[in-house]
Amino acid sequence: MHKHDLCCVGHITLDKVVTPKKTVHMPGGTAFYFSHAIRHFDDIDYSLVTSLAESEMSVVDDLRSKNVDVHVIPSQHSVYFENIYEENQNNRTQRVLAKADPFSVDGFENLDAKIFLLGALLADDFSLELVEYLSRKGLIAVDSQGYLREVREQNVYPIDWKDKLETLKYVHILKVNDLEMEVLTGMKDIKQASQQLYDWGVKEVLVTLGSLGSVIYDGKEFYKIPAYKPAEVVDATGCGDTYVTGYLYKRAKGASIEEAGKFAAAMATIKIENSGPFNGTKEDVENRIRTAEQIIPVV
User: Fold this and answer.
1) Range of the domain at 216
2) Which of 15, 136, 237, 294 could form a disulfide with 226 if both were Cys (CB 3.0 to 4.6 A apart)?
């Protein structure tokens, strides 16, 4: 069976993005932002597994036209998110207007990858059974945000991760922001929280701090990853997904944790300067690392 370097599993959403400057309707979700970002790097074997309604198949057709390998699991509905940002782009209000079917083990028998990114948008997207199954095929990477969202009457509420102790022992790479970190561990201190997540089984803990940078912990060292100051903040939607894209891309290529973190941060900076997915090149990212003003996180 062919083994991909990277495989992202996640729903493509319908997104309504409201910022102080404008309102935009566009596809979204980890699957969308990750796929559109990584397609700019032609030295990685990548595949996407997504699930969406037939009415949104044009998004998949567009990805395929850009040479992205896409496997589709049909769903009665697509996920429909509304994201409302304040002037400070770190502050966001969300509503979920429709949900897609969760993923299950069925359909993954003929898919193999070195790293699987589980791009959860809502808490019930991935069963524990599926996480355990995929962990026998490759390393599991997870962005925690979806596991910490509960939808009640279309509104999104923060919750703790159900079955987190059972699930995290299968997770090699976990990305959290500072608020998600506190929900998961009950701790505000980045070092203590990272050590707790490591003790629960995570091998690489990525804590993003927005415009203040990020911290990565591997059980031995805390890597302080700078934020690269953008020329202009236009749209933060998808920045976390873009960060994960850069990190997994570089780790899959054999880069060190620190090198991968810096590449991820610079990618996110380039993305935040525009609406829509990352649309730069590897050279753009490397140039940003060399030239942009840096903000070092305080830990």
Assistant:
1) 4-295
2) 294
- CATH number for 182: 3.40.1190.20
How many domains, in total, are found in the chain? 1
pTM, rounded to two decimals:
0.91
pLDDT tens for the chain, 299 residues: list them: 789 999 999 999 887 878 888 888 888 889 999 999 999 999 999 999 999 889 889 999 999 999 999 999 989 888 888 878 877 766 778 788 888 999 999 889 899 999 999 999 888 899 999 999 999 999 999 999 889 987 788 887 778 998 999 999 999 999 999 999 999 999 999 999 999 999 999 999 999 999 999 999 999 999 999 999 999 998 888 899 999 999 999 999 999 999 999 999 999 999 999 988 999 999 999 999 999 999 988 87
